[in-house]
Amino acid sequence: MEVTEESMSVSTSLARHTVRQLIELGIEDVVLSPGSRNAPLSIAFYQAEEKGLINLHVRIDERGAAFFALGISKVSGKYVPVVCTSGTAVANYLPAVLEAHHSEVNLLLLTADRPARLRKTGSNQTTDQHGIFGSFVKHSIDTAAPTDLSGALSDKGPVHINLQFDEPLLPEDSSEWLSGIHPVTRAEPQRIAAELEVKSKRNVIIVGHDRAGFSVDEIEDLADDLAAPLVAEDPLVFEHAIAHAPIVLSDERVRRDLAADLVVVIGRTTLSRSTNAYIQGSSRVMVIDPRTESIDTSRTADEIHRTIPMIKNPIEIDQNWHDQWHKYEEVAAASLSVLPDWSEAEVAAVVAEELENDVALFIASSRPIRDVESFAVPRSGIDTFANRGLAGIDGNISTAMGIASKRDETYAVIGDLAFLHDISALANPTTDTLTIIVIDNDGGGIFSTLSQRGVDGFEKIFGTPHGRDIAKIVSAFGISCEEVRSTKELHIALQRIHPQIHVIVAKMPSRDANADSIYNVIKKYKELVLL
């Protein structure tokens, strides 16, 4: 007997309608974790991949799957569905949802659920999944019937679709339900830029890591119009950014000497305390970030814009102003001479120098992102990524793998604790070209550079030494790995390209020695400033 739409499983019909609609809305990549309740979606997405309509990625750990999807969306800008079964599987999405919310990354959570009638009855693997992510998703839909999703995907940020699937879960036919499908390209909404007249000549632009979603060209054009030096948390995409800015601004006398009439902050402020102190000491601050509309709604500044304004009359460059910045920039570069031959600062500088153009680089939170900002020499040609929404150390390997799935060659710099935190990702490794540099200082090196250093019980509650041989752990997963213990060895290791995932474990001196080297740089800089 021919299976008709009327006799088809309700769950099969719901899954197929959802998948077909998502493809038509432009979905290209889907990340799936195995489960029974999500079987209708799993089968439908698999059939779509067999037709060449999507790329289906399978990740066995839901937390890692969500960060993997986050990485894909960072590159593509498109909504990336992440699909799971019911119960605790859904809760594992929360860390990535928070990151996606605060960074406005397009993450689509497709969670399978039992029918609503089974909630609060003690039924197996059943909880109240609707609304589980609260205000951290733009839209939350709970449905047992086909639903129009176009409105939910018209904005930016995470969206939750909770789909109630009843028995039977498996399809009873092999009909050509995907025939005649036509994906559409959705146009991005355009914001109207305000026109501004700026009369001040001592202007500075400070750019947070994700650039608030703006392009490098847009920001550089604004810097040209304002004749402004540019301070970037991510100096690897702005070739003419001020080098070693956190060091330059670490001295209060220098901050006074470089005090600006106007500081323009694009995105969120950097992790650098000295840069933030500089912003706070300025006479006028302008913030440009579209997230002030719906996420950072309590942010304050003298002016707030959601798109980059047009400058009516571009400012004529004040060469003395730029020369002042470059003078201190040179002093900061000279202060690096006190760094030891092998240090975490040197790893950041070598990675920034060694990577070729057109590669992708994921930079983990905690020390790596700070070290790149402080010690890398500005350049361009690299596409950089970081989880700066909440700057967590979770899901870093998975995020890097997601990025690697969309790029020809990808690198990641991750601290040892962040690496171990997401070690389960190695059980389901990518086949894409990804090199991970692990900064192994046996614990939480960031805390040795913060005010917690030296408190009673520091090693137990902050330093948290793991005592693990990371190279052996990686090798146990069947992944190629090597250790480096010098700058020369790191240079050599980075010159080799591996066809799949490869891990370089950078064995570092003690955490205290690294912290001391950073303090010595700042001390040397302040001494040189007085000369």
Write up this protein.
The chain is an alpha/beta fold and 531 residues long. It has helices at residues 10-24, 39-50, 62-76, 88-91, 94-103, 216-226, 245-248, 252-257, 273-280, 319-335, 344-354, 367-375, 396-404, 416-421, 458-463, 470-476, 487-494, 511-530, and strands at residues 29-32, 55-58, 80-84, 107-113, 139-143, 159-164, 195-196, 203-207, 230-232, 262-266, 285-288, 303-305, 310-311, 360-363, 383-385, 410-415, 434-440, 480-484, 501-507. The protein has a 6-stranded parallel sheet with strand order 2-1-3-4-6-5, sandwiched between helices. A 6-stranded parallel sheet has the order 15-14-16-17-19-18, sandwiched between helices. Helix 12 (367-375) links the parallel strand 14 (360-363) and strand 15 (383-385). Helix 3 (62-76) packs parallel to helix 5 (94-103).
Any key phrases for this structure?
single chain; 531 residues; alpha/beta; 6-stranded parallel β-sheet; 18 helices; 16% strand; globular; disordered N terminus
In short:
The protein has 531 residues and is of the alpha/beta class.
**Beta-strand content bin:** 15-25%
3D shape? globular
* Residues in helices, as a percent range: 25-40%
Distance between the termini: 92 Å
Q: Reading side by side through the largest sheet, how are the strands ordered?
A: 2-1-3-4-6-5
Number of helices: 18
What's the overall average pLDDT, rounded? Answer: 93
* Number of strand segments: 19
Decide which structural class fits the backbone.
alpha/beta
Q: In angstroms, what is the radius of gyration?
A: 25 Å
Low-pLDDT residue spans: 1-7
